[in-house]
Amino acid sequence: MKTSQSAARSASGNRPGGTSGPADPDASTRQRVASSILEQGPSTAAALAERLGLTPAAIRRHLDMLTERGIVESREQRVYGARGRGRPARVFAITDAGRMDFHHAYDDLAIEALEYLSETGGSAAVRGFAERRLAGAEQRYRTALAETAADSPTAALAEALTTEGYVASTRRAVAGEQLCQHHCPVAHVAERFPELCEAETEAFARVLGVHVQRLATIAHGDGVCTTHVPDLTPRPAPDSHAPADPNREARG
């Protein structure tokens, strides 16, 4: 699949375990090996050799390099039923780091698309995209706040963010709370287009009904996306027991 093959470039380039410097003549072959494992699942060296039309020796050389870089890992193949004689076969699977590496390649595609949008429509077009992207999420956050039994609206928002992959939590701070997002699925893209972070911050403010302040973002190199939420003090409701104004009718 073309998308996965382009994604696998990171597995042999400057991503986890990659090297900089002169072009690696074997890089494209390692791309094919990594892509095949990603698409077909854990595979033996023999299966990869047959699938890609390479010799077992060549496949093992590429697997050794991918393993060294943390892109794949080897493990004993699961066998159901009676095991035959001889050494158990070993399979190679994509690691979490390797899988994340492929995700970064999709981020690169998103960056290219937003760069084109910026060139053709200007910053307003990028801003419009960021706001539209958050519109659906904002509605889900509102629903979560309305239905939750969390101790605070900020905690409810953190729960909603966690369900969408942001691994969020809250902690007390001076005159309020801090909303902490320990993972950001779009950090790589937001590094280039901060409009994504800005739109998200504004969505938080609307959902919580209070002005919030972004203190740190993963996209800018911080370890956690942190947003300060001041103490939520609801507006006082009209006092129905207050004495009536005796002059009200006279003024009417």
UniProtKB/TrEMBL annotation:
Pfam families, per the entry: HTH_20
Biased composition (Polar residues): 1-13, 28-40
Xref: CDD domains: HTH_ARSR (cd00090)
Region (Disordered): 1-40, 229-252
Superkingdom per UniProt: Bacteria
Official protein name in the record: Predicted transcriptional regulator, ArsR family
Organism name: Auraticoccus monumenti
The organism's taxonomic lineage, starting at the top: Bacteria, Bacillati, Actinomycetota, Actinomycetes, Propionibacteriales
